[in-house]
Design a protein that fits this description.
mainly alpha; Rhopdopsin 7-helix transmembrane proteins; two-stranded antiparallel ribbon; two-stranded antiparallel sheet; 13 helices; C-C chemokine binding; cell membrane; C-X-C chemokine receptor activity
Length: 359
């Protein structure tokens, strides 16, 4: 049975092959005309699809290595490692959907409503779980460094419950995708898209509610927690002479900054779109087109985040490289001399404190 869609003038920001802009404008003659839909060129569509496939490959390889390293070092696993393990799992799950999004970008949605809901939920869960896990890492580092509560941060039994709570809360924030995501033919087009189908006269109001609540509790609040915790923690580290903790904090801060670099532009653009829907920002075709293009572009940047963390660990995290080499030595893939040379060359310290086997 073919999916149908009744257009009510509120569907502006489709993230598919085309940039749909529908708000009516008044020309000099006084005649009301709809904004025209602008198609992306085939070169751009296939280039974006290629980027998605490349990110998928890098993410699967990189995050699989992170899971391997953290899982292999059970005895030395810290609270931060448990959070990073969950972060890698979230990125792995999302990476599996990237080929589907690549086909959508290059062509149209051909996978049905069920897959539309499923992949949309994984996208949201990946984002919310990522920012929440980073927020809890910031709290863990804050307690360990500012208050030196090593005994508290090393109690791992409660970390499992925290991680389960993060996954459940992320899923709850993503439930609107299950309810409202549908596959339908875009207005004035034969192409099928995967997007929200709320319907009714209260469409704009519900869209605003469904955006503001998740953005507030799933992004702004965790971001405020991170800024506070890391601000105080970094200030405290400047007063200390513990180089090992400083190195671990450097990696964590880079992880947070990269997350913000990838996802903050998308959330800012989404917020601007929300302001336009509520009438706070005057809407016209030019502004609508800019925001739609911004949503599509910044979403690509957000998707690329799923492969970033393993690259950071590999280039900055000495412990990650050391523990990965230890696994290769134990499996007989490389000799012990290679590990010894690496430790000498990198001035690696075996004193782990209560930082992380990954960082």
């Amino acid at each position: 049975m073919e999916d149908t869609w009744t257009f009510d003038g509120n569907l502006y920001d489709l993230f598919g092959n085309y940039n749909y802009v529908y708000e009516n404008t008044i020309d000099p003659s006084g005649v009301s005309e709809p904004c025209r839909a602008e198609a992306a060129s085939p070169v751009i569509r296939y280039f974006v699809a290629f980027l998605y496939c490349l990110v998928c490959l890098l993410s699967l390889i990189g995050n699989a290595l992170v899971v391997l390293v953290v899982a292999y070092n059970k005895r030395n696993r810290s609270v931060t490692d448990v959070y990073l393990l969950n972060l890698a799992i979230a990125d792995l799950l999302f990476a599996l959907t990237l080929p589907i999004w690549a086909v959508f970008r290059a062509h149209e949605w051909i996978f049905g409503t069920g897959m539309c809901k499923f992949t949309s939920v994984l996208k949201e869960v990946n984002f919310y779980s990522g920012v929440l896990l980073l927020a809890f890492i910031s709290v863990d580092r804050y307690l360990a460094i500012v208050y030196a509560t090593r005994h508290a941060t090393e109690k791992r039994h409660w970390v499992k419950f925290v991680c389960v709570g993060i996954w459940v809360f992320s899923l709850l924030l993503s439930l609107p995708m299950v309810t409202y995501r549908e596959v339908f033919h875009a207005p004035n087009s034969s192409l099928r898209v995967c997007y929200e189908n709320i319907g009714g006269n209260e469409t704009s109001k519900w869209r605003v509610v469904l955006r503001i609540l998740p953005q507030t509790f799933g992004f702004l609040v965790p971001l405020a927690i991170m800024l506070f915790c890391y601000g105080v923690t970094v200030h405290r580290l400047f007063q200390m002479k513990n180089n090992q903790k400083k190195k671990a904090m450097k990696v964590i801060l880079v992880v947070v900054l990269v997350f913000l670099f990838c996802w903050l532009p998308y959330n800012i653009t989404l917020f601007a779109d929300t302001l336009m829907r509520t009438g706070v920002i005057t809407e016209d075709c030019k502004r609508r087109g800019i925001i739609d293009a911004g949503l599509s572009g910044t979403e690509i940047l957000g998707f690329s985040h799923s492969c970033m963390n393993p690259i950071i660990y590999a280039f900055i995290g000495q412990k990650f490289r050391n523990n990965f080499l230890k696994i290769l030595v134990e499996r007989g893939i490389i000799s012990k001399e290679v590990l010894i040379r690496y430790r000498k060359g990198s001035s690696f310290s075996s004193t782990s404190g209560n930082t992380s086997t990954t960082l």
